Amino acid sequence: MQRIDKYILRSFLGIFLKTLGISIFFLLMQMVWKYVDDLAGRGIEWFHIIKLMFFWSASVLPMAVPIAVLFAGIMVFGDLSESKEFAAAKSSGASFYRLIRPILLALALISSGMFIVSNNLIPVANFKGENLLINIAKQRPTFNLQPGIFYGGIDGYSIKIGGKSENEIYDIIIYNHKERGKGNHSLITAPTGLIKYNEGNEWMEFILFDGHSYQEYELESKRSDTREPFLESTFKKMLIRLDMGSYAMGDLYKVSRSDEYNMLNVSQLNIAINDLYKKYRKRQNEVSNTMRNKFFGWKSNDSSLTSSPYEVFNVHDRVGQKYLFRATNNSIHLAQSNRDFMNQVENEFEWRRQIIARHFIEFHKKFAVSVACILLFFIGAPLGAIIQKGGFGLPFVISVLLFLFHYILSIIFEKMGREWLISPFWAIWLPNIVLLPISIWMTIWAANDASMNSFNRLRIKFFNLKRHLSE
């Protein structure tokens, strides 16, 4: 390896590692800010939080590595062009392709490593991180008490709050449904309140202020003309004690979830997809047989009804006049029941298709992220040679914009893939397919001594063509 190869490779790896660290930090902070209020000051040991952040940092690598490759490519060749080293190398006979050759080995290792990380490290990190988060939430019930959402994690109660600050909560709604099968017979509302719960305590206390309570009572004999009694009252202060014995501190690393698509590697995803397809087809056959037996499987001992399957007969001849109204109502109820059943089946099949799509998307993501690293480099390196700017100014802005372009395309197509508007395969690979001609064009253009003047000439030609067409 020549000296210039070592110089370019060392510059690329140095910038890549620095950018990777910065990208992981900023992406990780997005997840930390989401849970910082619930994790901080809740009695959770600091090393559990550090481990949780470590697991989260692995999950952001598919976003951090491509942007680090892109920025390193732009900055290295931007510095070479700005300092005239690129022109000196080309004057000595080294082409653009020759200069990127030492980086290709590092790029191959990065892409291969990214696949290994996506296939082996990230599923394990997601598995351990999500289970740790679930177990923290179970042992710290206030962790999942989110504003505007009913929380049913406490047995026998549904609790909703409008906001919270430390131990203070606002706009509280508590439904009591501890009596199984009797619904919500008790409702308590209050504008403000306090939560008192210490780790390991068997009770959690809700202290509510200036609220209202509503409770219904069930009569032993129900009559249509009898109104059910209820009790409505107001209070200045109310203490509610909830039994938290089942939430005692246990093993924070016990397994609570292990079958999510983001916790599986390629081989496990392949097995899961085949199993999901089998269950989907089995359920289709079950619904088909149910409806077929329901409408076409009737048998009758009356030979007059089965003499000809195409015989048309009058309902009045088969049903007595006094039973006609009942028969009509039963038919309407049967049709409504079948309609509701088919709506439920449609929702179920839609849910099953979305689960299959998510597994397909996760399967192809593990390969697509490695390809994206290569394509973004072949956009970033030529662009750096063309704009001839180094440092953290213009290269950083351009790299962020290019990555956002790729990221937005990925989000849009992935959402379409989850809804099966397009195939999950194309949902993941279309962003890379869009980048492929751009990377080829940029590489060829940079190899042919393109510069910012080339952009100016293209802009002038474009406006001249536009003016000519308008005339």
Describe the protein's topology.
Elements: H1 3-39, H2 46-59, H3 61-82, H4 85-91, H5 96-139, E1 157-160, E2 163-165, E3 168-176, E4 186-196, E5 203-216, E6 230-243, H6 266-296, H7 303-306, H8 315-318, H9 324-387, H10 394-418, H11 424-447, H12 452-470
Antiparallel strand pairs: 1-3, 2-3, 3-4, 4-5, 5-6
Helix pairs in contact: 1-2, 1-3, 1-5, 2-5, 3-5, 3-9, 3-10, 5-9, 6-9, 9-10, 9-11, 10-11
Can you give a write-up of this model?
The protein has 471 residues and is α+β, with helices and mostly antiparallel strands. It is 63% helix and 12% strand. The chain has twelve helices and six strands. It has helices at residues 3-39, 46-59, 61-82, 85-91, 96-139, 266-296, 303-306, 315-318, 324-387, 394-418, 424-447, 452-470; strands at residues 157-160, 163-165, 168-176, 186-196, 203-216, 230-243. Strands 1, 2, 3, 4, 5 and 6 form a six-stranded antiparallel beta sheet that branches. β2 and β3 form a beta hairpin. α1 (3-39) runs antiparallel to α3 (61-82), α3 (61-82) runs parallel beside α9 and α5 (96-139) packs across α9. The longest helix is centred in the C-terminal third of the chain and has 64 residues, at 324-387. Mean pLDDT is 77; it is low at 248-252 and 297-310.
